Amino acid sequence: MAVKVKIMKKVIKKPELLAPAGDMERLKVAVRYGADAVYLGGTVFGMRAAPANFSNEELHRAVEYAHERGVKVYLTCNVLPRNGELEYLPEFLRNAVEAKVDALIISDMGVLDYAKKYAPELEIHISTQTGIVNYASANAFYNLGARRIVTARELSMKEITELRNNIPEDMDIECFVHGAMCVSFSGRCLISNYLVNRDANKGECAQPCRWKYALMEETRPGQYFPVYEGDGGTYILNSKDMCMIEHIPEMVKAGITSFKIEGRAKSEYYVAVVTNAYRRAIDGYFEKPSDDYRPEQWILDEMRKVSYRDYCTGFFFSDPSEDANISYKGGYNREWDVVGVVDSYDNGVAYCTQRNRFFADEELEVMPVGKKPFKISVKNLRNADGELIESANHAMMRFMFDSEIPLEKNMILRKERDEKLRVII
Q: Which of 75, 149, 170, 182 has a CA between 20 and 30 Å from the CA of residue 422?
């Protein structure tokens, strides 16, 4: 039975902040730094094979941990399974029900049908890989039982607004707002399959779109001719990263109900920084809503304290032909290093674990949860035995130093790289 669509009322609703969780540690980081919900994958049927992901038992523990802290968990089930894989799907879905996940992210119609049969209790979210670009498709999936769509990344803000105004009020719109962009339409890519026999539609993408390419003439096999887009060579398929943190008002007004951060394969540090920044940006806007709202400068600065490709706003405001989203570099910008994580603080002494080398008396930056970072000088740097040392130069070594400022457990210590040492990785 077709649903009657009501025009969306112009009510400002605070969007959900949805963060990636590649494993349990990254889930905890996402929760700690302010995510309203996390999305994660099991060991099968998810679109990211590289992260550790979650076994059945780990999924149960992850959901329990998140729910105890008021955070929802969405389970990816968005691969395109072949015939031989379908026999394992019912068990996967039953375990999702038992684990009490809040929703399944699905792209395949057959999987949707299985989910309605074996996991009718679970909410259905339609993956970006489905390629929804109009309200007719959104309404069709609503009639099939879906309560959220993850729009195709190719939609503009204007198109999202129109879509919002022509779907049921209780249907959510989720959009990617930050992270890597796929060169192919809504992630439907076959380049990896052809070049290295790794199926992108099963989470095994080798990202050949990021590789450096050259030209070869048919009658001169093996003779490569560079085609320079920039000093570093040619990256004709390499897209920039998306960053929409300066456009909170536009996204809220368009009716986007979930802001999604890409990156289940990214590090704990990446998840912490980006989640923290968007949490503060969203909260800042809702403290004083304004069309002119712009996050504080320290929040914007955080976007360049992780590994990133040059940023763009994707398709939200213009056709990329007008402002090409091609990244002319082969790797990521890396301008900061994490040097340690605080384990505890007692009587003026910070006890930490090392992540990268640093020296005594260096000035480090401390990253607290939900607050502006602050500087601290490393005084009386000592090893785990209390002996004075000139540097913390062993991986994962325990160290301590004096600090008049109390430091909390899990605070991140980092430092800016010297201009000469900054690299593209």
A: 182
